[in-house]
Design brief:
Blueprint (H helix, E strand, L loop, with lengths): L36 H14 L1 H5 L19 H4 L10 H4 L2 E3 L4 E3 L1 H11 L11 H13 L26 H11 L1 H4 L6 E2 L6 E3 L17 H11 L13 H13 L32 H6 L10
Antiparallel strand pairs: 1-2, 3-4
Length: 302
């Protein structure tokens, strides 16, 4: 399950077809970033998201607030890949109300959530140059996306629900066949030669995302896997079946990883997604059922 570490998609920005059908969003050409002070900030933001660990990792040159993973390990190619968890709608949809926190969240809050959860770290100072740079880059990526619009290709693919529980045993077989070449037999990932960052990130263990990460929900991880993994996969050319994606996601998230207690999540328990792996719930199904499914009766929502 190889995570693409380098390379950006450079093409026209999201538009509509003359027939009225929506085209898949593509990122603007990075050569169009202006050679100005603002352009320098945008390029720094892109570099921070591509090489987060170099700046903010355990041996970071700016701060030591994250785990060695980089933002683009989950937001592929610096957040430019269709259905690769891209940033196309970051600027257009924030600030917004999020049910997970029960508050209106800023883009700064969203970025810090990723640092604390997916990179198992600590938040950035919202007044820092690094925070300003990341937001400048995200705004530049989405500069032609209208306010409150999520263009086609944003986010993660949503898979049809299984009619059974996701199977960790089947998932382990998929992992060994398709994923271990890059992420290791024990999910440890592969370091870059300089060992300041991961080339292919750890999928479990102490260096991986923690239990508060959004991708710890199976629907998120399975959709991400289906649309992007292993090497060579795109949303137009899937390698894994839907069942394989669900099962390998279940296997990965069943493995040990950092545990963080975000007990203030979902203050209105009625809004909690059915595949959230931690109670309490507004129904009587077990935590295990919520984590692995099946979910049809729970009406899983994104």
């Amino acid at each position: 399950m190889k995570h693409r570490f380098t390379g950006l998609i450079c093409a026209a920005t999201f538009i509509s077809c003359s027939s009225g059908r929506e085209k898949v969003w593509t990122a603007p050409d990075t050569t169009a970033i202006p050679r100005t002070e603002e352009g320098s900030l945008i390029r720094y933001g892109r570099d921070l998201l591509s090489n987060t660990a170099f700046y903010l990792g355990p041996e970071g040159t700016v701060a030591h607030i994250s785990n060695g993973m980089s933002c683009q390990n989950c937001h592929l190619a610096a957040g430019t890949v269709p259905w690769g968890n891209n940033y196309s709608a970051a600027a257009s949809t924030y600030p917004k109300f999020r049910e997970r926190s029960g508050t209106v969240e800023s883009l700064e809050k969203k970025i810090n959530d990723c640092l604390e959860r997916s990179l198992n770290g600590s938040p950035l100072d919202t007044a820092s140059r690094e925070m300003h740079a990341m937001i400048a880059y995200m705004r530049w990526l989405g500069k032609k996306v209208a306010i409150n619009v999520k263009p086609k290709g944003s986010g993660i693919l949503r898979l049809p629900l299984l009619d059974r529980a996701a199977d960790t045993v089947r998932g382990a077989m998929v992992y060994m066949q398709r994923c271990k070449q890059c992420h290791g037999s024990n999910g440890e990932g592969q370091w870059m030669a300089q060992r300041h960052a991961f080339l292919y990130p750890p999928l479990w263990g102490t260096g991986s995302y923690n239990t508060g990460a959004g991708i710890y929900r199976l629907s998120k991880l399975a959709g991400y896997v289906k649309g992007n993994m292993p090497q060579g996969t795109t949303y137009l050319k899937a390698v894994l079946t839907d069942e394989e994606a669900w099962d390998v996601a279940a296997y990965i998230n069943s493995r040990e990883r950092p545990v963080r207690d975000f007990n203030k999540d979902w203050p209105d328990v009625r809004t909690k997604p059915p595949d959230d792996p931690f109670g309490p719930y507004a129904d009587t199904f077990s935590e295990n059922r919520h984590k692995y499914g099946p979910w049809q009766i729970m009406q899983l929502k994104n």
